[in-house]
Design a protein that fits this description.
One of its GO terms (molecular function) is transferase activity. This protein is mostly helical and 359 residues long. It has two domains: 160 residues, Glycosyltransferase (Alpha/alpha barrel); 180 residues, Glycosyltransferase. The chain contains eleven helices and eight strands. A two-stranded antiparallel ribbon has the order 1-2. A two-stranded antiparallel ribbon has the order 3-4. It has a two-stranded antiparallel sheet with strand order 5-6. A hairpin with a 4-residue loop joins strand 5 and strand 6. Helix 1 packs antiparallel against helix 2, helix 3 runs parallel beside helix 5 and helix 8 packs across helix 9. The longest helix has 35 residues. The termini are far apart. The relative contact order is 0.09.
């Protein structure tokens, strides 16, 4: 997965990133539930390509190289908690979604190596992605032990994951308690990028730990973020990356697809946890942002080929279609479909219960 594009043409000179290849794994896996059998085979072949990239860029100490030149040389960089978290989340999703033992061997090895890095994490988004990944693995370990290899890995999860979940959950709650004020319900003094991942991770954690303070912090921060990202008429308005957002000021431009996707991610999880249809509506509005319900009234996504423009600027759409933007659109579309399925199932159960009540 090449990182950037000029229009729809990949910029090979700018190489690859682990961030995008991890997102690509996640995207392919969530779309498995929405495609026909022959398309599933194509998605699984792509997953193999992206998994092999992660296997190649993982260091012996469990961390991941993020930036790679087109000639496949590793570029000089600082260690990135964000990159680590995205990679581990993708691997956790892969472990829970892939059925092939041959694929799971590689995923298991990368996960076991990666968790040597957990004590080194220090940033909010690194905490968040890793917390969500650990919780997903912990949940799965309680329900799936289909063979000896799987059972052995789940025993490893049961031994190691609970204490890491407790620590990462505590780290995020501590950040929230330090920074939250009456009119600033947030983990940090500035709203920057990919903000939805923070309340999302606490919602995922709540499904495992069932801590009421975790649920409270998750919903307070998500509701705050929704208010900050809602414009006139209810359209989604991402915080601009040309200055971000503080209690005193807010940047309107440039608006990035990844921020819309992360809000949809958190709102979809909140709908699953609470059943509140207001969160389902947020997911719908996030999807609509890609199709033109935004500040410029123009679509960013091309539903025919699945590509997406890189953002909204004060002078128009950034027509370049990089990996991050395209994957953000595809993930948002899949989340919308999942939420609609969940809503349909919820209403079906309500009708059944009502019919029994009338007997």
């Amino acid at each position: 997965m090449l990182e950037h594009g000029l229009g729809k043409i990949p910029r090979r000179r700018e190489g690859y990133s682990t961030d995008d290849n991890a997102r690509a794994i996640w995207t392919c896996l969530v779309w498995l539930d929405h495609v026909a059998a022959e398309e599933r085979a194509t998605l699984l072949r792509l997953v193999d390509t992206y998994l092999s990239f992660l296997l190649w860029v993982q260091h012996e100490d469990g961390g991941f190289q993020n930036d790679v030149a087109y000639d496949r040389t590793f570029l000089r960089e600082r260690r990135s908690d964000d990159c680590f978290g995205r990679a581990v989340w993708a691997l956790a999703v892969a472990w829970t979604k892939l059925e092939s033992p041959d694929r799971r061997i590689a995923v298991r090895e990368m996960l076991e190596r990666a968790y040597r890095q957990v004590p080194r994490l220090s940033s909010a988004r690194g905490f968040a992605y890793t917390l969500a990944a650990l919780c997903l693995l912990w949940q799965h370990a309680k329900t799936d032990a289909s063979d000896e290899v799987t059972a052995a890995f789940h025993a490893w999860v049961e031994r190691n994951v609970p204490r890491w979940v407790t620590e990462l959950e505590r780290n995020l709650l501590s950040m929230y308690s330090r920074n939250a004020q009456t009119h600033w319900r947030w983990f940090e003094p500035v709203l920057t990028y990919g903000n939805g991942v923070l309340p999302w991770s606490l919602l995922v954690a709540y499904t495992v730990t069932e801590r009421q303070d975790t649920l409270s912090a998750a919903l307070h921060t998500l509701d705050f973020l929704i208010r900050q990202m809602t414009g006139q008429g209810g359209i989604i308005r991402p915080v601009g990356n040309q200055g971000w957002c503080t209690p005193e000021r807010r940047a309107e431009w440039d608006q990035q697809p990844i921020d819309v996707m992360k809000l949809a991610l958190a709102a979809a999880m909140a709908y699953r946890v609470t059943g509140d249809p207001a969160y389902r509506d947020v997911v719908r509005r996030c999807r609509a942002w890609f199709y033109g319900e935004n500040d410029l009234g123009v679509p960013l996504a091309d539903a025919e080929d699945g590509s997406c423009c890189d953002g909204l600027t004060p002078v128009g759409v950034n027509v370049n279609r990089g990996a991050e933007s395209t994957l953000s659109y595809l993930l948002t579309e899949a989340m919308f479909r999942n939420v609609e399925v969940d809503a349909h199932e919820y209403h079906r159960r309500e009708r059944v219960l009502h019919s029994f009540a009338c007997i």
